[in-house]
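1st attempt posting a full record on here, be nice pls
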Amino acid sequence: MTAPAIELTDLHKNFGATRIIRGVSLRVPAGERHAIIGPNGAGKSTLFNLISGRLTPTSGTVQLNGENVTGLPPHQINRRGVARSFQVTNIFPRLSVWENVRCAVLWSLGYKYAFWRGIEGLADVRERTEIILHAIDLIDRRGVQAGVLAYAEQRALEIGITIAGGAGIILLDEPSAGMSVAEAARAVALIRKVSEGRTLIMIEHDMGVVFDLADRISVLVYGQIIASDVPARIKRDSAVQTAYLGTAA
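the predicted structure (as tokens):
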């Protein structure tokens, strides 16, 4: 039996006397698009930080593809095929779109600084960078300074940086935050394209995005998962409606 891409077992995280994550257990199969939803303060970003190694659990375990990675630092988690984006756009605003993606590609391919080697001549880096820019629909903006891109384009660029290493597991933290309806629809199309063949876990408040994109949804309330199911059943779940979606959902 194939191990799930991510498996959380009785995960807890306390900050002093405050319990933020309270016994979360979750299995996400390889290739699934999984959304984590819940009210503000539910612990969603803390859960992401536990998975990606930015925080160490108080107790419980995190497994990636069957390997226990509990407590490993972020760079070691990343080397095991996990990449994440953040709520706040995280790009190099003074570099061009091309240079932003190329930086991530250089790192992922193992290139380190050497003054005698010009990066312009690295064919594998150039090819990989171009493939990613086509995937995120920014190839025509390759020479534009990243800081002057429209907000939705900056979020697309961040997704490009996130996938540059070829990670098999992608964590996206509110990828459509701050977008118009039209921008969010384009973001859904982009995420669907770049997550093909990968495992996706996303935190998202826009229920239109969630129900359009996710194969399965987990609802986190006060640090506990109260439901985890396919979108149609989550919509009808009375406990979810009471805690988060509202009776009109």
